[in-house]
């Protein structure tokens, strides 16, 4: 059962058309579109001489593993065993901080510790022995930015985070992860090392080419050492879909930012902690050399996840994974839970950009709202009274009991009535038949705000209201204006995300 309004056949056709045309320089690649109920559509392809991956094939998710580590750390926070604002050195005495400034746990899992980028080093050191890594810490780490000030992607920082977990729990991260997260969530096909799979599983093998695909060199799978928690995990597209759906689940619940009633399927980690992972904690500047599509208004790092604010669809969580022989990406639209997971069996491939394009196409085809916002009951009740007042002549004094003092101070009642009369006359007069208010809701910026259509004969107007919770008379603003007035003065084709926030009555 997919989310309401999703036609699996439509999505399948889109995936079947898009994925084979990606033209990646890799022996094989695959992608799946999912929602919170699981996989909706899957497609895979291969070059001559290779076999296209099956949906059940296991692939290395590399740095996508970081979200699993952060979820485990937040479990400890909820249990009162870890404080993210504590300096790292209090948990790891061997951490020699040459910056001279405080580095907190939160800094290291939001990629603003000040430690420099280290992807090239970490790709070859997943198997580094624990003692050797501790010696590295004891020698002292140099910082290329002041801690807490700037985004830099540090695998060493996340390795330190895994050590903190092990210090607190007196347990190896692998066993903690399996018992506390993977098993309860039913992620049975997500495992820590290739040797954890028996002959029933087919593992996607990674390759590299140095001559544009004429020849392929198979990469060995590195063993899991001290830095393994940053990128050692293996999984399947179905397990990643389940993981992503669980992470986005808080945005499905009724309440702040959620538009659907429901109960959590599994209560391993609170919704507030999962939501905390999926908001920007460290801004990624536009000068970064990372791939950032033009449709994003803002990009940043959350906790173990990248967050993109799409100009049409709002927040999208994602993370890539790359190791020699592998490239992968998972991403999902927070409100709807619709997402894409994709991977290729070669390193350096633009899997993230292809997955982003596919997700964008699916969301647009389905016309998915950026957010569904459940209004305050008072917001909708106020809208009904205000709408009736406007349709019956526009005497604001009839609803004075719900208007805050500033309303008539800003614009006196007689002037408001005159302005409404002129606006309606300019639009050809009110329509003779006016549908119910519930069918005329346009968008809302929050639970305390609403914009709806006021039907007129020639061209419609719109009404915008805002409520406050600090006064017994809550309505603090009423504006009647031309339809889509918020676009006035903006370039043609501007698509404001707020205009796609779907208001839902309580």
Structural commentary:
With 506 residues, the chain is α+β, with helices and mostly antiparallel strands. Strands 2-1-12-11-10-9-8-7 form an 8-stranded antiparallel sheet. It has a 4-stranded antiparallel sheet with strand order 14-15-16-17. A two-stranded antiparallel ribbon has the order 3-6. Helix 2 packs parallel to helix 6 (155-169) and helix 2 crosses helix 7. The model is unreliable at 254-259 (pLDDT under 50). It is globular, with a radius of gyration of 26 Å. It is built from 13 helices and 18 strands. The chain folds into 2 domains: 1-218 and 227-369, 3-Layer(aba) Sandwich (Beta-lactamase); 375-504, Nuclear Transport Factor 2, Chain: A (Roll).
């Amino acid at each position: 059962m997919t989310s309401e309004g999703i036609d699996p056949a439509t999505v399948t056709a889109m995936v079947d058309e898009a994925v084979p045309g990606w033209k990646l320089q890799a022996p094989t690649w695959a992608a799946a579109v999912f929602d919170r109920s699981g996989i909706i559509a899957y497609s895979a392809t291969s070059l001559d001489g290779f076999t296209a991956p099956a949906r059940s094939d296991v692939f290395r998710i590399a740095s996508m593993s970081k979200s699993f580590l952060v979820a485990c750390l937040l479990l400890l926070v909820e249990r009162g065993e870890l404080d993210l604002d504590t300096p790292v050195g209090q948990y790891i005495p061997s951490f020699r901080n040459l910056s001279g400034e405080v580095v907190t746990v939160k800094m290291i899992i939001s990629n603003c510790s000040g430690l420099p980028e280290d992807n090239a080093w970490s790709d070859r050191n997943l198997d580094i022995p624990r003692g050797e890594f501790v010696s590295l810490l004891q020698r002292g780490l140099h910082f290329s930015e002041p801690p807490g000030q700037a985004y830099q992607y540090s695998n060493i920082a996340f390795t330190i985070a895994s050590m903190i977990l092990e210090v607190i729990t007196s347990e190896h991260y692998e066993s903690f992860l399996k018992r506390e997260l993977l098993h309860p969530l039913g992620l049975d096909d997500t495992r820590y090392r290739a040797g954890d799979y028996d002959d029933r599983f087919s593992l996607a093998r990674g390759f590299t080419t140095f001559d544009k695909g004429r020849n392929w060199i198979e990469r060995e799978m590195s063993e899991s050492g001290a830095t393994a928690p940053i990128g050692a995990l293996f999984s399947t597209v179905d397990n990643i879909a389940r993981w992503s759906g669980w992470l986005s689940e808080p945005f499905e619940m009724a309440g702040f930012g959620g538009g659907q009633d429901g109960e959590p399927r599994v209560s391993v980690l609170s919704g507030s902690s999962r939501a905390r992972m999926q908001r920007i904690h460290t801004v990624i500047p536009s000068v970064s050399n990372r791939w950032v599509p033009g449709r994003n208004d803002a990009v940043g790092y959350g906790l173990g996840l990248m967050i993109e604010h799409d100009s049409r669809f709002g927040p999208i969580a994602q993370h890539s994974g790359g190791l020699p022989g592998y490239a992968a990406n998972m991403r999902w639209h927070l409100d709807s839970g619709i997402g894409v997971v994709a991977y290729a069996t070669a390193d350096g491939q633009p899997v993230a950009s292809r997955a982003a394009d596919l997700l964008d196409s699916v969301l647009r085809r389905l016309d998915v709202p950026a957010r569904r916002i459940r209004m305050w009951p008072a917001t909708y009740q106020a809208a009904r009274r205000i709408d009736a007042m406007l349709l019956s002549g526009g005497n604001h004094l009839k609803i004075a009991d719900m208007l805050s003092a500033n309303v008539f101070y800003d614009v006196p009642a007689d002037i408001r009535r005159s302005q409404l009369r002129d606006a309606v006359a300019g639009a050809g007069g009110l329509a003779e038949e006016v549908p119910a208010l519930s069918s005329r809701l346009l968008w809302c910026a929050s639970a305390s705000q609403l914009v709806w259509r006021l039907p007129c004969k020639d061209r419609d107007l719109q009404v915008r209201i805002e409520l406050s919770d600090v006064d017994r008379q809550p309505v603090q603003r009423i504006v009647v204006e031309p339809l889509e007035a918020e676009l006035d003065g903006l370039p043609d084709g501007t698509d404001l995300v707020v205009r796609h926030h779907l208001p839902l009555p309580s």
